[in-house]
Amino acid sequence: MIKKFLDLGFQPMANNYLQTNSKLNKKNIHTYRLEVVFNTDNSLISIKTKIPKEKMFNNKYPYKSSLSSTMRTSFKKISQKIKNKFEPRRLLEIGSNDGPFITNFDKNKVIGVEPCGNLAKITRRYGYYTYANYWDIKLSKRIKKKFKDIDVIYSANTITHIENLNNVFKAINNVLSKNGILIIEDPSLLECLKKISYDQFYNEHIYIFSAISLKQIIKRFSFEIFDIEKLPTHGGSLRYFIKRISNKKLKIKKSVSKQIKFEIKNGLQNFTRYKKFAHDVYKSRKMLVSLLKKLKEKNKKIIGYGATAKATTVLNYCKIADDMIDYFLDTTPDKIGRYMPGTNIRILKYDKKLMKKNYFIFLGAWNFKKEIFNKEHNFLKKGGKFITHVPFPRII
Ligand code: TYD
Q1: By alpha-carbon position, which residue is closest to atom 6 of ligand 1?
Q2: Atom in ligand 1 nearest the alpha carbon of residue 331
Q3: Fewer CB atoms inside 10 A, N or C side of the chain?
Q4: What is the position in ligand 1's atom list of the atom closest to the CA of 312?
Q5: Sign (positive or negative) of CA dihedral 145, 149, 152, 158
Q6: C-alpha closest to that of 388 among 331, 322, 308, 334
Q7: Mean per-residue pLDDT over the chain, rounded
């Protein structure tokens, strides 16, 4: 049974950074109701209204994962680990973006799959074999025909973006070798609940996995998780190492039962835990709006840092406009000069000069807090202030 626990109101499509102010352009903005539901059968959390993939992942996709040093380092580390531990003859990445993972491997060993044409073009230019297609059974058959079996399939922050999970795992099952390894990493549901990071929900994040839910989903395809690593990326993620149940060479590590027990202890199988989360979210909105209002009453200037898809959820749910946040700063070329989706807040090119020490800076990219605080060391040293809403709204 599907049970709703959270309603984040009408939202524009995150990552749809328009050149026009959404307040003046209302009729051209596609909105959807962002509601979050719990599946009592497998404890899977998902958004209720799904947007067709072609509308989200096309040749205009603005996010490039290689722009962040945190992500580049993380991909480098896992690549080294894969080489040392699994020595794959051939690997495949589902959602290769602009290449920070695949570029750690020999060009003749790795295949990228990236439906956003603008990104696939980049890795092809580097000389990497990249399919500009959505991941599905048809594509996996094409890959199998050309390359035979794949030893390691890696996918970070992508599987939760694909609506038809049956199709995803059927396609993986089709192309993964007998003793092949599947590695998936995605934001952790437990971290999301603990951090009250309701902005993990938006049209692209169709699911937020827990070890409990993923275990049940993959079991249908005779896969099992044999190891789990905790990662600090994207606000707290889990990296799941998965094998075929028939592969007895690899032992299931303690990390798996430990994570599952911890999730059970924290109520992830109980609807009441999600009702509590919804209550935390309403409180978080109240606190953030009141904090911003108080600063504006004192004539303080507030700007945003990191024009994330996550910030789109926050701004639209809390109804924050340019009378509160003057502009957002971001380093992504494809976002600059555009507007935060659904709002009249402009995105300006990141420039230290636009961050005066008496400004209050709302941290849209809170998931890169460490990287950003290192970069803005001088601003902070001079008394500069950030605002975050995670785990609860406050000034840092
Ligand atoms: P991301 O973490 O992908 O969040 P989401 O998935 O919610 O969109 O996006 C991070 C954004 O923050 C991206 O637009 C780049 C921006 N950013 C900066 O502008 N400066 C920085 O130093 C960092 C780390 C990120």
Answers
A1: 309
A2: 19
A3: N
A4: 7
A5: positive
A6: 308
A7: 96
Ligand 1 centre distance from Cα of residue 90 (Å): 31
Residue 47 CA to residue 38 CA, distance in Å, equals: 9
Substitution site in 34, 198, 203, 308 for ligand 1 pocket (most atoms within 8 Å of beta carbon): 308
How many angstroms separate the alpha carbon of residue 240 from the centre of ligand 1?
A: 24
Ligand 1 geometric centre to CA of 159 (Å): 20
CA of 233 to the centre of ligand 1 (A): 12
Pocket of ligand 1 (CB under 6 A): 63, 67-68, 306-310, 330-332, 335, 350, 365, 367-368, 371-372, 375
Residue with CA nearest ligand 1 atom 22: 372
pLDDT grade for 31, boundaries at 50, 70 and 90: very high
pLDDT at 118: 97
Burial of residue 133 (CB within 10 Å: 0-12, 13-18, 19+) is middle
Please enumerate in sequence order all residues whose Cβ is within 8 A of that of 213, keeping only pairs 6 or more positions apart, or say none.
39, 42, 43, 44, 45, 189, 207
Distance 145 CA to ligand 1 centre (A): 38
Tens of pLDDT along 248-259? 999 999 999 999
- 20 has pLDDT over 90: no
Phi, psi of 126 (to 5 degrees): -70, -10
Instruction: Give the separation between CA 392 and CA 13, rounded to whole angstroms.
Output: 25
Provide the whole-model pTM: 0.95
Gap between the Cα atoms of 277 and 283, Å rounded? 10
Which residues, listed in sequence order, are joined to residue 131 by a DSSP beta bridge? 113
Query: For 66-120, what is each residue's pLDDT tens digit?
Result: 988 999 999 999 999 999 999 999 999 999 999 999 999 999 999 999 999 999 9
Name the one residue in this structure whose structure tokens are 């190492």. Answer: 241
Domains of the chain plus CATH, in order, are: 2-38+272-395 (3.40.50.720), 44-268 (3.40.50.150)
